Amino acid sequence: MVKYPSPSRADGVYAAHMSETSTVTLGFTVFRPETAPFAARAMEGHDLIVLEEPRTPGFEEMLAGELPIDEYLMLTDFEFPEYATALCRALQVLHASGAAVRQVHPWMDELAGIHEFFAAGNGPDDIPTGGRPWAVYAREREWSAKLLAFYAAAGKKDFDGILAAVNDFAMADAAKISDMDRDRAAALAELLPARGQAYVECGAIHHDMVGLMIRALGHGRVRTIHLMEEACLARHGRRRLIPPGDLLTFRHLLGAPRDRAVESLLAARAVVYNRLMEKDESFESASPFPHMDAEAMVLQIVGGLGIEQCRDLFGRIRHLSVRESLALVLQNSH
Known about the structure:
Largest sheet: 5 strands, parallel
Radius of gyration: 21 Å
Helix content: 55-70%
Number of domains: 2
Strand order of the largest sheet: 3-2-4-1-5
Distance between the termini: 57 Å
Structural class: alpha/beta
Shape: globular
Number of helices: 15
C-alpha cells in the first residue's frame, strides 16, 4: 500500500522543504466542464501543477501526447469525464511549455491499495490495526455506513428521520475531509519545491487546506482563488455559490457550536436542493455557465424555505426527476 508522511509530521516537513521564495496558489474548483477554461487560465505561469486526484495509469504518457486523451480516460473511471477531457487538453499544453504536473491524493491512493488488497482475497481483519491503511479503511467504513443510512432514510416518509441522517452523514463527511486534507498537506510538503510557484487544485469543500498551508508558509506566500468568482460576481453578485449541504458540512469542519435548529434547516434545504439541481455534466441550456446559473436559481428557491415548506415540497417532488421537480416548483411560483 502507498506510503506517505504521517499528518503529525506536517509542520516539520513544511519547515524543511519550503523557503521564503516559494509561493502556492490554492485553486478552489467545482468539477464541471464550464470551469475547465478558468482552471487552465489559473494554472498558467506556475512551475508545478498539483491535481487533486489519485495516480492513474497512462498519466505521464497522456501529458507527453504519447497516449490519446480518450484512450487515457478509458483506463480509469473518471467521475467527471467531460471536465477531465477539457482539463487534459489544457494540461498537455502547460506540460509542453515546461510546467511539471503531478497527481497528489494520498488518501485515494491508499484506498485504491486497500481495494487491491481485498481483490487479492484478503478481508478487513487482515489489515493491521494502528497503521494508515486501517485508519483510512475505518474512516471510509464509517462514511459509507452513514451514506447508506441516509439512502435508507430517504426511502421512507419520515422527513425528520431524513434530516437526522443528512446531518449524521455531514458529520462523517467532515471528519473524512479533514483527514484527507491533513494527509494531502503532508504529501504536498514532500513534493513542493523550495523555490518557484506551485498551483494546487482543491475541490470547493476542502478549505482545511487554507489553514494547513498558511500555517506552513505564512499568509504572504499562500494565495487562494475561486475559479468561477469573476463570472459568479458578474452574473449573480456573489463570489461563490455554496449549496446548503456544503454549508452544513462546513459547520462541522469548522467546529461550530451545535445548533439543532440551524442544522435541521440546512439539512431540509439540502434534500430539496438535491431534488432540484441538475447533476448531468451536460444538459440543454442557453447559458455559457449552465451549472452555475442553474445552481444560483435553485439556491434562490431553497434559500427562502423553512423546514415545514421543505417538508411539504419534498413530499411532492421526491419521486419526480430533477427536471420534473424544477418545472413543478417554477410553475407554482408564478
